[in-house]
Amino acid sequence: MSEEQPDWNRWQRPGPTSRQQRQDVALAVGVLLLSAGMTLLTNSMGMFIFGSTPGLPEQLAWIPPMTLPLALRRRYPLTVVLVVGTVFLTAQVRHVGDSIMPSVALFLAIYTAGAWGRHRVRTRWARVAVIAAMFTWLGVGLIAWVVSPTHLPDAVGPLDPVVATVLYQVVYNLLFFLSAYFFGDLAWRSARDRAVLALQAERLHASQEQNARGAIVAERIRIARDLHDVVAHHVSVMGIQASAARRSLDRDRELAGSALRTVEETARTAISELRGLLGVLRAEQDPAAGYEASPGLAQLPELVNATRAAGLEVRYGEYGDPRPVPDSVAMTAYRVAQEALTNVVKHAGAREAQLRVRYLESTLEVEVTDDGRGGDPESASGGFGLMGMRERIAVHGGELEARPRRDGGFLVRASLPAPRRAEAVVS
């Protein structure tokens, strides 16, 4: 089922965090202090472009309403840009001496409106209105200055000083405030793209979890198919031996007794395997028809040769006294070796691997080591290989060790119960 896709054209940026709001307060205080300092400097210099200026107390009084609204710039971006823009233009009409820090405050307000405005149409037109009003006032001031310039510096360039001054003011303000507009929109689109990626990552994670659950179910079904063949084999052996015992009971009691002991041991083995199977499997799907019998320890040399054909040098060794083990245990040992060698070929980047089979006193141990990178195959292959190993080994009550080796490479060691003789199963 396809999930409904959100309309990203109507996406609204979430509100600021507590940390971001504290940062905005600190920014507003910093701009206020810098504005006060710049006002003192410009008044001490006595250099202004347009007309006369009010006294220093009035100039300082204009600073708080122009800078303190920045403390709420990400919470109420539209309101802040309108308030700061209005105060900025009014201060310009009053010919307040400092124009640098008020311009910085207006830059921040315009940028924040573009980056955090939740209503994009209103935000766009509010910024356009503020910038248009600012340039209108700039044009009026430049015209007034051109008509009666208060100061003409000694020019050394090719342009007329009046023309150069007008061009400088227009280009400077265009670059300053239009960049605030552009970078604000860019920040908003960047935040939206991050939200898109976050949603995609969340859906990918959910899909991976669903795939993992599906892989576990599929692995359990495969285990059920394998053990179905083993149990069917046990039942067939029991039937054949029971038939032989019935036929030889009157003629050869020793042969009949041997056949009955085989039936008894086979029955115990089958019951033990069924108990382990029912403890792990919960799926109700029927195994598919036509599934071939699973391999065992005798097929390990063939597995080694097939792995060598894939380009990996594999050393194979058996240790201890080889003895018959239950078919299900042999099949699980083969599957563990197969999955471990497959991980080495696909993900380890190894040149050499070693497969060891150890017949211990009451267990069968299968160990695969390599000289590769030593990374976790669960992260490289999605984690399903080791899941399958654990599921298989849990059927028999065994143990699995899978970890990077200290001297490089990776180790997979499975320990499966395999007593030397059949033990009674207490029901």
- Quaternary structure classification: single chain
- Provide a count of the helices: 12
**Tally of individual domains:** 3
Q: Indicate the radius of gyration in whole angstroms.
A: 41 Å
Q: Assign a percent range to the helix content.
A: 55-70%
N- to C-terminal separation?
A: 47 Å
* Spatial ordering of strands, largest sheet: 1-2-3-5-4
Global shape? rod-shaped
Structural class: alpha+beta
Low-confidence regions: 282-293, 422-427
| Proportion of beta-strand residues | 5-15%
Order of helices and strands: HHHHHHHHHEHEEHHEE
Query: How many strands?
Result: 5
* Arithmetic mean of pLDDT: 79
- Largest sheet data: 5 strands, mixed
If you had to describe this structure to a student in words, what would you say it looks like?
The protein has 427 residues and is of the alpha+beta class. It has helices at residues 18-45, 56-61, 63-67, 77-93, 100-116, 120-147, 161-248, 253-280, 300-309, 327-348, 377-381, 384-395; strands spanning 313-320, 352-359, 363-370, 399-404, 410-417. The protein is built from 12 helices and 5 strands. The chain has a 5-stranded mixed β-sheet with strand order 1-2-3-5-4, with helices on one face. It has 3 domains: 15-151, no CATH class; 208-280, Single alpha-helices involved in coiled-coils or other helix-helix interfaces (Up-down Bundle); 297-417, Heat Shock Protein 90, CATH 3.30.565. Strand 4 (399-404) and strand 5 (410-417) form a beta hairpin.
